[in-house]
Amino acid sequence: MSRIILRLKALFFRAVISFFTFFDLYLSHPLPQRVSFTKRIKSTVSSIPGSFDLLFYTPPHYTKSQTPNTQKHPLLINFHSGGFVIGHARDDARWATAVTSQTSGVVVSVNYRLAPEHPFPIGIEDCVSAVLWLWRHADEYNLDISKTAFSGFSAGGNFAYTVAIRLHEELARMKDEGTLEDVETGRLVHLVVFYGSTEYQLTRDEKDASNPNLIPVIPKFLFRLFDESYLPPKPERRSPLLSPGIAPDQLLEDALPPSLVMINCGGDQLLAEAERFKKRLVGLGKKVNGYIVEGVGHGWDKTPTFKKGNAKRDQAYRVAVDSLQEPWA
Known about the structure:
- With 329 residues, this protein is an alpha/beta fold.
- It has helices at 3-27, 93-102, 122-136, 155-177, 204-209, 220-230, 249-255, 271-283, 311-325, and strands spanning 37-42, 51-57, 73-79, 106-111, 143-153, 188-194, 259-265, 287-293.
- It holds the Pfam family Abhydrolase_3.
């Protein structure tokens, strides 16, 4: 499929998904927190110049004032879903609200550039640029970057892993070049991953066949749009920046933080690969909590509920927020 056709289809489905997101974020109660403020920054890691937005969600007692007694806040950097092609950083407002209402953390959701206009690995590099920018400006925003965590949903869950890996590589490069002193280095202490993809060397049919309890949610033509827009040629799909599930042990030990929480869907095509990865990380000495939400398909927490609420979503978010308490203590 030509890049022009891919872009036209992507634009169409971005409009469609924003329509449904409107019902979730503006018509389903209780309403989530609105964005506190936005900052546009440049991508410094990518070889493709460009800019993107950071959406800040802050707890009620947050202030940007600079006094000796001003509280420093733990930092959660979030990566949204959408197959790397659709979606927006504001889509995870409910998750951000759960964090800011139950912790002192600041959530920054990254509106990284999307494929097909910006295919692999530009989105990952934008997110690494966001991390480095936030670390550089931590004092300005009263952030405790020694307590940095990542979160992500679906494609953003993949980014939670791959941004950690790419960040590890970038910091090593900067150290070798003697430029690391220009960055106040934070510490990645935790990952929160909701139904993240981990093995792109597998076909979609293989992923479907791996779950006997599959609940189809995303049509195949949309998967085809995602994959043709974002993915590189097949031989390159074993890259740790696409398939962290098959990355070398040493890289995972060095790049990923000591603790994670993984919330997976019982009816998801990604369940088997996510659970394999969970078992592998435990074997590498990582502390991995979380559970499988039974009876739901991929992206179940993003469905508009209007006045009905979503008990499974609330429980999953509680578990995820609770997982932040220890690394943020």
